[in-house]
């Protein structure tokens, strides 16, 4: 076994149906004063309900969280936290809401209680991101790692099927890349493989039976492991490509991950046979050569969008995307060339079944 560094996840995690009833006692335990409740406009009602339930423990609600944390939203939220005398934040929502809590923490050091309601996994990472003038800057800082996380599968029963599926695949993508990460270690690999196994066996059910708590628990458990893997090791081609596509062509985060992950898995199969073999094992297929196809089949099973063209990309965009994604060198098991990435994008644009060759 090679020497490795393992970065710890949040110190306290509460998992289980109904656990959101412990939000008040967890705020008290954090001992950081009143909490500002954060949400997206869509989840505003739930945030106000929570704030009412918290009574004296709540500093108020800021319900303007949006995807990719625009700098002006972060600024307004930081102001709100100061004006309302909040000592900490509660982020009830997906990666967008948790991302906003992280922006506040980065600026003010206010600790976060995260209550994730998607499978994006941000609650398990010290990674922050802020977007200014169309450019997203990301970084790592332990200040933004939530202090406490409450995983309550009951909060996910309202997550619609068309968000549930891609969100689960987004989590699987974290796990796939963690398995062949440059700094992969036995602990994260164990978590990543188990994350794929848990989501792989339950995602279709969670999509088709939105209120199935057993399926929601299993997928959320997998998302926890996926987020922990993402937070602990570096990512590679898949995340680079999705970052490029999302940022430069304004494509929806989780859907892009969903479409791309089978192709990047195929691309890396021969160069990372052990890692991709673990992906195959977790998905219950024979060999590493079948892993990419199994992910493609899972996308079909959950009724996901299968082509970049469905997300609004045009064929002319593919050259530009390949240029941007290969402009700076970065680690990937299979060396990255402009020509091979252009081919990969073409397959993803048309939704062809991925092949390993
Ligand atoms: P999101 O947070 O934008 O949520 C998608 C939509 O679903 C929103 O409209 C939200 O209000 C709604 N929603 C969320 N939970 C719901 C529920 N239970 N019921 C009904 N509606 C619900 O999307 P996301 O995919 O969770 O997060 C994406 C963002 O997170 C991106 O900006 C991405 O870059 C970031 N991210 C960051 C990290 C990190 O480690 N920093 C990790 C993963 C994702």
- The total beta strand count reads 8
What is the rounded Rg?
20 Å
Mass-distribution shape: globular
Number of helices: 13
* Average pLDDT for all residues: 96
Helices and strands, in order, run as EHEHEHEHEEEEHHHHHHHHH
Parts with pLDDT < 50 across at least 5 consecutive residues: none
Question: Within the largest sheet, what's the order of strands?
Answer: 1-8-5-4-2-3
What share of the residues lie within helices?
Answer: 40-55%
Q: Main sheet?
A: 6 strands, parallel
Structural class assignment? alpha/beta
Spatial gap, N to C terminus: 30 Å
Bound molecules: nicotinamide-adenine-dinucleotide
- Taken as a percent bin, the fraction of beta residues is 5-15%
Write a brief caption for the model.
This protein is of the alpha/beta class. It is 51% helix and 11% strand.
């Amino acid at each position: 076994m090679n020497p490795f560094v393992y970065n710890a996840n949040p110190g306290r995690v509460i998992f289980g149906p109904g656990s959101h009833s412990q939000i008040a006692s967890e705020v008290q335990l954090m001992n950081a004063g009143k909490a500002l409740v954060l949400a997206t406009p869509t989840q505003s009602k739930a945030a106000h309900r929570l704030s009412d339930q918290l009574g004296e423990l709540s500093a108020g609600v800021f319900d303007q969280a949006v995807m990719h944390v625009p700098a002006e939203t972060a600024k307004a939220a930081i102001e709100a936290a100061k004006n309302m005398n909040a000592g900490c934040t509660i982020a009830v929502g997906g990666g967008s809401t948790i991302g906003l809590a992280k922006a506040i923490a980065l600026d003010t050091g206010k600790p976060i209680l995260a209550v994730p309601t998607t499978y994006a996994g941000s609650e398990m990472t010290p990674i922050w991101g802020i977007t200014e003038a169309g450019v997203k800057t990301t970084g790592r800082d332990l200040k933004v790692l939530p202090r406490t996380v409450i995983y309550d599968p009951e909060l996910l029963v309202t997550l619609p099927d068309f968000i549930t599926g891609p969100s689960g695949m987004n989590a699987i993508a974290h796990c796939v890349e963690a398995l062949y990460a440059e700094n992969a270690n036995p602990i994260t690999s164990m978590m990543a493989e188990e994350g794929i196994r848990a989501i792989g066996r339950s995602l279709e059910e969670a999509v088709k039976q939105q209120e199935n708590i057993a399926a929601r628990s299993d997928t959320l458990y997998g998302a926890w492991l996926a987020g922990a893997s993402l937070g602990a090791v570096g990512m590679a081609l898949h995340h680079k490509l999705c970052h490029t596509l999302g940022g430069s062509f304004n494509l929806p985060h989780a859907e892009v991950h969903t479409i791309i992950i089978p192709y990047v898995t195929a691309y890396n199969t021969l160069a990372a046979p052990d890692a991709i073999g673990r992906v195959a094992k977790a998905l219950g297929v024979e060999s590493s050569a079948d892993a990419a196809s199994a992910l493609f089949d899972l996308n079909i099973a959950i009724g996901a969008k299968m082509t970049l063209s469905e997300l609004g990309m045009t064929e002319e965009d593919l050259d530009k995307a390949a240029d941007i994604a290969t402009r700076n060198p970065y680690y990937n098991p299979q060396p990255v060339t402009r020509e091979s990435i252009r081919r990969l994008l073409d397959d993803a644009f048309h939704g062809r079944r991925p092949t390993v060759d």
